[in-house]
Amino acid sequence: MREKDVPQDKGVLDDKQVVSYALNDEGRYCLTPSAGWEPVNCANRLAWEDIQAELVLVRSQIERGEMSSLAYYMTRAQMDVALLSRYSGIARWRVRRHLKPQVFSRLSTFYRQCYAGLFDLKPEQLDQIPANDDLPVTTQEEV
Question: b/e map of 87-100 (b: 16 or more CB within 10 Å)?
């Protein structure tokens, strides 16, 4: 693709840009900024809508007392038990236990600080989930 043909379709990236390789006028590859490409924007929008739906499900499980608030932050960060375990250095079986509200309510300061640091929160913020999700992108089409 030529440098002048790189798509500039605004989408979920808002004012951010991605970098693509394109051929310049001399026939050499160069890095070219792009605001996005409609097929990629559509796929990203669908993925974020799936994440939003999953957050709604997790929020209802937390309200019913089936999951701890850790599940919300884990889902919002697009993590599963294995990934959270790897990033936190906490064993998988412990992370699974911490997803239970009864266990999470008795969690030690050490584990709270580990999780809070990962999610860029204060340890006491882990107990509550925010009223709205504030995802990093807009999932609805602009009308």
Answer: ebebeeeebeebbe
Give the residue extent of every domain in the chain: 3-36, 40-127
**Which of 37, 32, 29 lies closest to 12, judged by CA?**
37
Residue 30's DSSP bridge partners are 22
pLDDT in tens, the chain (143 residues): 787 777 676 766 667 777 878 888 888 888 888 877 778 778 888 888 898 999 999 999 999 999 999 999 999 999 999 999 999 999 999 999 999 999 999 999 999 999 999 999 999 999 999 888 777 666 554 33
Separation CA 140–CA 143 (nearest Å): 9
CATH no. for 40-127:
1.10.260
User: Encoding tokens for residue 136?
Assistant: 């990093």
First-to-last C-alpha distance (Å) of the chain:
30
